[in-house]
Design goal:
It contains 25 helices and 23 strands. The chain has 823 residues and is α+β, with helices and mostly antiparallel strands. The strands form seven sheets. It has a six-stranded antiparallel β-sheet, with no helix packed on it. α6 packs antiparallel against α7 and α22 packs across α24.
Length: 823
């Protein structure tokens, strides 16, 4: 081989270039020659593109916002930029990264301005300023352009980083993990129909890893002068494809819907960093016109008028009602009192503890009790551990907390004290539901026509038709809105004489003039109710828009109203005598406050059945008084905070043995599970570290170094004066069965390290290198067992701490010893 190389070099030196003088000699090279090739093979680039595009196209297919079709081109540019940056050697790495990231951000900025602001960069900058101002004060950033800008920049940077990790840092695993994080976050928020992108991603990832490792191995074999079949690459890829498909099929048939309730509860804790990140992200990057993450109902202390709620059909609750007449009751989670033109929220709240089975009094007249047993099948998404039940909840058989509005004093939500709802959990809830019939509600006047009392009134009772000022102030609040909304409300209710009839007129108008549709796309720069009532060309929307529109129009008439979220009554299951509540039953509706009779439900959403009003004397009254009309008096209800304090003092704790057992067993199970996970992670980390130990050295040096490491862990320390032969002999004294193997390994290592590489005694020429894997296979388990029997490494830490303390004391002592010359 050396003679052939010398002959070729001599030929190159002796050949003289010939000129193309028309004599037919075409040997001269062209002035410009470009060779396009990829050492790793173009197939690796194809697989890389499939991995990246399966991630990006999944985001694009969901359609979170409009104009996501540009992601394909942006991703392609990112891949080309990453490939060029990985292969070039002219510019420093840091400069390449900075220039590419700046280019990607500018590209995303330009595409966002073109898609949402007709190419006006100034308008986009103003939109960014408004978004920053909103989120910095705790508001919701429901600007679709911000989400679009983030996704476009992410697609470019992700594609660039993927190409760089594969072709420059030679780390395809990191590339796959980076894309998998984006893909799995996207898939966890959509329906199961998009799982095909994960299948394509996994197949392409496995093939890419196989192709890349095969290329690295073939490159190493070439350096070592080893021969291999020319069609080896095709055979390996073919087998790898079959194995990859087999792995996916096997994974598909494995059970994948198991969820441990305890772990799920811990994972969903509001103090969980991941949950806090999700909550912050949902607030900062909110989508107004696109799709929301797939959910079974997601309840937060704010409700934005956004795009498709993307509800799944999974069963959430099974509800059993004590009285069949109450099977049509909705399940309420919480209510909202403030509207800023974009989002419904609650003002400052007070939170008080309520012991299990403690009943809070209600201030409404003509109510009856509804008892519901709620069984959680698949818990909904919750920002806080909300308990759901018919309005108004007065007691629950669990320790709970109650949120009350500081301004209005009325109940907003009930929260469980023992954490979020988990699968399999059941609780019994009692509610005080209005029994007021239509004729009774028609006797309640409009707030402007109701009796008025001075702020210093010292009487013990008010007329039943009296509206408390704090209720009116809180639940008639509105921001500056389009005046046509109030004009429309007045025109709809002009011919109605009573407040109840006016509310029925608003309810009927919305149900008859607008259709129900979740696939809507509201422009982010238009107020939600105004767009729904006037600017929506299709006159459609879903429950959030119907409920918000009726509430806003009622408030524009001076009538206290609020938006409530929760679930409808679902579907009745006669076989099991229960109502089945699914994710698609998540809903929002309107409640109107009638003086003396509390909050009354209205259903403005088209395609949903209206609420059935009770008949006169249909239910026995359990309200605060026995008034049935407008002529009685109503006792002033106690302050909510005082009610909570009294309930906390006198209520029954209701702590069952099951709850106590859960509280005791949870720390033990958590500790045991954490210990098992810690051991598994430690084992995985040690396995990876051990495989890469001394991997930069030749095989004899690798194995010799590992033998020395294990011997040192077992207390057989190598001395500086020892030769490899002597050290192997010392180890053999402790493991006499492996004496011959140790001697052979040491001999091969010495000759590989110090023998003449050209001599026949060198292991590379004698073929003794091939013996090493077999020697190590016999030797490794014996050495590990010896270390387990003699765990000298466990004394390292105490010895090091002791030696450090001894050295410290020695230094301090030497400072106090006087010098001899001074004496």
């Amino acid at each position: 081989m050396r003679d052939a190389a010398i002959e070729r070099l001599s030929k190159i030196i002796s050949d003289t270039p010939t000129k193309d003088d028309g004599s037919g000699d075409k040997s001269r090279k062209p002035l410009f020659e470009m060779h396009i090739g990829l050492a790793e093979g173009w197939f690796s680039l194809v697989l890389l593109a499939i991995v990246v595009y399966s991630t990006i196209w999944c985001v694009q297919a969901v359609g979170w916002v409009d104009h996501l079709g540009v992601l394909s081109l942006t991703t392609g540019l990112g891949l080309l930029a990453g490939l060029f940056a990985a292969k070039q050697r002219r510019f420093p790495r840091l400069l390449s990264h900075v220039l590419t990231v700046v280019f990607g951000i500018l590209l995303a900025f330009w595409q966002t301005a073109s898609a949402f602001y007709q190419g006006s960069t100034t308008a986009f900058v103003n939109g960014i300023q408004h978004w920053i101002a909103a989120v910095s004060v705790g508001g919701t950033g429901d600007v679709d352009a911000i989400f679009f800008f983030f996704i476009v920049a992410l697609s470019f940077i992700l594609a660039y980083t993927s190409a760089w990790l594969v072709y420059r840092t030679r780390s395809p695993w990191l590339m796959i993990v980076a894309n998998a994080v984006v893909l799995l976050i996207n898939l966890s928020n959509v329906s199961d129909g998009y799982i095909v992108f994960l299948v394509i991603f996994l197949i392409a990832s496995l093939l890419l890893l196989l192709r890349f490792n095969l290329y690295e191995s073939m490159h190493r074999w070439q350096k070592q002068g080893l021969r291999y079949a020319e069609d080896l690459g095709w055979d390996v890829m073919q087998a790898g494809a079959l194995i990859s498909i087999g792995i996916l099929i096997f994974s598909w048939i494995l059970p994948g819907n198991y969820m441990n309730p305890t772990v799920s509860q811990i994972w969903n804790l509001n103090s969980n960093p991941w949950t806090q990140i999700q909550n912050t992200w949902n607030r900062v990057i909110s989508i107004s016109g696109g799709s929301n993450p797939a959910n079974r109902g997601n309840f937060r202390d704010s409700l934005a008028l956004g795009g498709n709620p993307n509800l799944t059909n999974e069963v959430v609750f099974n509800v059993q009602v004590a009285d069949t007449k109450d099977e049509g009751q909705y399940l309420a989670s919480l209510s909202y009192d403030s509207y800023d033109g974009r989002t419904w929220t609650d003002g400052p709240v007070d939170t008080g503890a309520v012991k299990a089975n403690t009943e809070l009094p209600t201030s409404a007249d003509l109510t009856h009790k509804v008892v519901q047993k709620v069984t959680v099948v698949n818990p909904p998404g919750e920002q806080y551990p909300y308990l759901l039940g018919a309005t108004e909840i007065v007691s629950v058989n669990l320790p709970a907390k109650v949120q009350t509005s500081q301004s209005a004093g009325n109940l907003i939500a009930w929260l469980g004290q023992n954490g979020y709802l988990v699968a399999g959990q059941s609780y019994t809830i009692t509610s005080s539901v209005s029994s007021a019939d239509v004729q009774t509600l028609r006797t309640v006047p409009m707030p402007k026509d109701a009796p008025q009392f001075p702020s210093g009134y010292e009487g013990s009772s008010y007329p039943v038709t009296y509206y408390y000022p704090n209720i009116l102030t809180t639940y008639t609040q509105l921001p500056k809105l389009n005046p046509n909304i109030a004009n429309l409300a007045r025109s709809i209710t002009r011919d109605q004489k009573t407040m109840y009839d006016k509310m029925v007129a608003l309810e009927s108008y919305l149900r008859s003039h607008y259709s129900y549709n979740v696939n809507i796309h509201r422009p982010s720069d238009v107020e939600g109710v105004e767009w729904f009532l006037f600017d929506n060309p299709n006159h459609d929307g879903f429950c959030n828009y119907f409920a918000a529109a009726m509430t806003v129009m009622a408030r524009s008439l001076g009538i206290p109203a609020r938006v409530v979220v929760g679930y409808t009554h679902g579907t009745y299951d006669a076989k099991h005598n229960q109502n089945v509540i699914r994710g698609t039953d998540a809903h929002s509706w309107t409640q109107v406050y009638f003086a003396g009779y509390g909050w009354v439900n209205f259903e403005p959403s088209a395609s949903f059945a209206t609420f059935t009003r009770p008949q006169p004397s249909q239910f026995p009254s359990v309200g605060s008084s026995s008034i049935g009309g407008a002529n009685g008096n109503l006792t002033i209800p106690p302050d909510p905070r005082r009610r909570l304090n009294r309930a906390d003092d006198t209520g029954d704790s209701g702590a069952s043995n099951t709850t106590i057992g859960t509280q005791v067993g949870l720390p033990v199970g958590m500790a045991l599970g954490s210990l098992i996970l810690l051991i598994l992670f430690a084992g995985l980390f040690f396995s990876l570290w051990w495989r890469r130990l001394f991997h930069n050295y030749a095989l004899p040096a690798q194995l010799y170094g590992r033998v020395c490491t294990l011997a040192n862990w077992g207390g057989i320390k190598v001395q500086p004066s020892q030769t490899p032969y002597e050290y192997m002999e010392e180890i053999a004294v402790c493991t006499p069965k492996d004496a011959e193997t140790l001697e052979r390994l040491g001999d091969i290592y010495v000759r590989d390290r110090w023998a003449d590489p050209e001599s026949k005694e060198h292991p590379r020429h004698s073929g003794e290198i091939a013996e090493l894997p077999g020697l190590w296979q016999r030797l490794q388990p014996h050495l590990f067992f010896y270390v387990l029997r003699h765990p000298h490494f466990l004394r390292w830490f105490p010895e090091k701490v002791g030696n450090s303390l001894a050295a410290f004391r020695k230094r301090r002592k030497s400072k106090h010893i006087p010098d001899v010359e001074d004496l």
